[in-house]
Amino acid sequence: MSTSWLATNLVATFLLPPGNGLGLLLLAFLFRQRRPQLAMSLGLTGGLLLLVLSLPVVGRALVQRLEAPPVVPEQVQEKAKGAGAIVVLGGGRYREAPEYGGDTVGNETLVRLRYAGQLQRQTGLPLLVTGGTPDGGEVSEAEAMARVLRDEFRVPVRWVEGESDNTRENALKTAALLKEAGVSRVLLVSHAWHLPRAALAFSRAGLEVVPMPTLFQRGVPTALDYLPQADGLRASRTALHEWLGRFWYWLRG
């Protein structure tokens, strides 16, 4: 297991929902006797934070603010001109899956692979998959991705980069592989909310990037979207995690 991945995620646990709201509630409990007014303020803030961030309409709006512009099917051939590869970023594994006999791709990764497979059929460009084992395990994200693409989608994979633990490392190690193959322009596949940061990392690594986003937040809100739900909290966490990642990249330059 990567120590940097573990440290980053431990910090994120306290900065992101529900950890941030629960942390304020815990402080309110600790200060309830010595500083009752402070405790009340902390408790109200923590409770309100959890309530607002658990609304699906809020979570969806936060994610939408992050999304890269969509690319419709009619634009794909034009976008692919001059490109030498399709690069797919890993989005997590389904560890120790009994029905598959071991580690395989998680839901978010599967969404990216589906779109990458479609792009490969449309353009004929070779595929590169990237993702390591930041949370441990024997099979890297990239290896699991290549297996699914080849065996289930019947899509060939030319490069497998299985040593990186985060988006920045994805970019650096992928760029090194592709430069050896003479590839400088790529179609980059990831979730729509993740692609702006990923594209920046790959550009800084020396590649010309064409963002190819997938899984947009769409749909007209219903009455249920204004009620607290786990899905709303999950979407808010995703968005705030990405904003935190962008801020960290800005600090590091």
Automatic annotation (TrEMBL):
<feature type="domain" description="DUF218">
    <location>
        <begin position="85"/>
        <end position="245"/>
    </location>
</feature>
<dbReference type="InterPro" id="IPR014729">
    <property type="entry name" value="Rossmann-like_a/b/a_fold"/>
</dbReference>
<keyword id="KW-0812">Transmembrane</keyword>
<protein>
    <submittedName>
        <fullName>Uncharacterized SAM-binding protein YcdF (DUF218 family)</fullName>
    </submittedName>
</protein>
<keyword id="KW-1133">Transmembrane helix</keyword>
<keyword id="KW-0472">Membrane</keyword>
<feature type="transmembrane region" description="Helical">
    <location>
        <begin position="38"/>
        <end position="59"/>
    </location>
</feature>
<dbReference type="Pfam" id="PF02698">
    <property type="entry name" value="DUF218"/>
</dbReference>
<dbReference type="InterPro" id="IPR003848">
    <property type="entry name" value="DUF218"/>
</dbReference>
<dbReference type="InterPro" id="IPR051599">
    <property type="entry name" value="Cell_Envelope_Assoc"/>
</dbReference>
<feature type="transmembrane region" description="Helical">
    <location>
        <begin position="6"/>
        <end position="31"/>
    </location>
</feature>
